[in-house]
Amino acid sequence: MAARQIVGIVLVRNEDLRIRQAVKNVATFCDRLFLADHGSTDGTSDILRQLAAAHPQMSYHHLTSPRASHALIAGFAGTDTWIFGVDGDELYDPAGLATMRQRLFAGDYDDWWMIFGNVLNCVKIDAVNQTATGFLAPPCRSITKLYNFRLLRSWTGDTPERLHGGDLDFHPGHDASARLYLHEKTPWADAALRCLHTCFLPRSSADAAAPLVRENIMDVQAGGLWRRFQRGWKMLRGVPLESDWKKSRYARGERVTMDARAFFP
Question: Does the pTM of the predicted model rise above 0.90?
Fold first, then answer.
């Protein structure tokens, strides 16, 4: 079997405000990094092309649909590969990721299918004082996406985007229930896998001045026929679509302010 590796996949659309920082923070964690853009109209695609040109382990991919993103990683099923999904509103702690990489290569998590880390869902980032304010997971849900593809034989079927949906075929003795919730065991200050999730902040120079809590795949899939009708009506009228799903799950508990220096090296 080939040597162990970590493969990252960045899937974005209109994320030019933070995408450069998001990619740079995970660059040394990943042995390969796919930079996939689907339909950006701001400066995102230019930034991704620049990053790919400057870093040999990165490659740029223009996609016509997020569905095409899963094809970039499906072939790693059954190989000694951890797949790391990164969004444009996710700023990871690079020093923490260095520790996490050591643990992954030491085999500490070999029997786990998915690993969830600590998250701060940000409503404010103070660049002067280098602090971030928001809601911690827990009690919010974690959004980190780290998958052990060594446990799979294949991941096929209908995948709306990378690491979502489809048909997972595991090797005997393994299944999707092997999920490790590190954020429920480790305090924020001690966590190696931790992320500033800037979901409540503007993400693109093309966004309106007011923060827009963008929809994600769960908003599109949830709510049934009535929800889909409401979305379609808003789209026809040109009304921006906001995420009720994010608001209900990422703004729980007490609002806290944390030291954010580690995320902006």
Answer: no
